[in-house]
Design a protein that fits this description.
This protein has 195 residues and is mainly alpha-helical. It contains six helices and three strands. It starts with a helix and ends with a strand.
Amino acid sequence: MSARWKRNAVVAVMAVLVCSAVALNWMYTGQEVEDASGKLLGEATLVSKQETENSKTGEDAGTAEDTGAADEGAVYTGSDYFASARLTRQQARDNAISLLQEAAEQENADQTVANEASQGIQVLASYTLKEAQIENLVTAKGYTDCVAFMGDESVSVVVSTKSGELTAEDVAKITDITVTETGFSANGIKIMAAN
C-alpha cells in the first residue's frame, strides 16, 4: 500500500512540476520576446510633451523603431508565432523529460516508478516525432507553415495559409494527414488557421 502511495505521490509531484515549468516558461518567454532590431516587444516608451509637440509641427520625432515602439501582434502571427510555439513546446518537453529521468534515476526509486518514467519519456518522444511528421507533411501540401501540439487523446494543428483562412478542403487534407500519423479519430483533432 505504501509503495503505491509513494508512486502516486511521485507522479503527482512530477505532473505539478511539469505544469509549473510550462507556465513559467510561457510567462518568461512571453515577456522577453525580441523583434528583429533587438528591442524587447511590449516595452513601454515614454513620450514627452516636447516629442508630441515636435510631431505636431512636422518635425521628425523618430520612427516607431527609433522610439522603441513595436508591434506586439507580430509575436503571435506569421513565422514568429510558429517559431516561438515550437520553442516553447520543445522547452516544456525537455523539462518534462529531465524530471522523468531524475525520477527514474533516484537510488531509492521503486522499479515501477522507474518503468513509468521510462514509458513517459518514450511517449513524449513519440509525440515529438509525430508532431514533426504532421508539420512536414502539411507544409509539403503547400501551406506556409504549421505547428502541431499532441496530447494523450487529441492533437491541435495551427496552420498558416496565404489567405489567412482555411477552407473545408484544407481542413479535410490536414485532418487526413493527422489521422494517418496519429491514429486519432477526427473528433480528437482541432485545426485552426493562424491569424
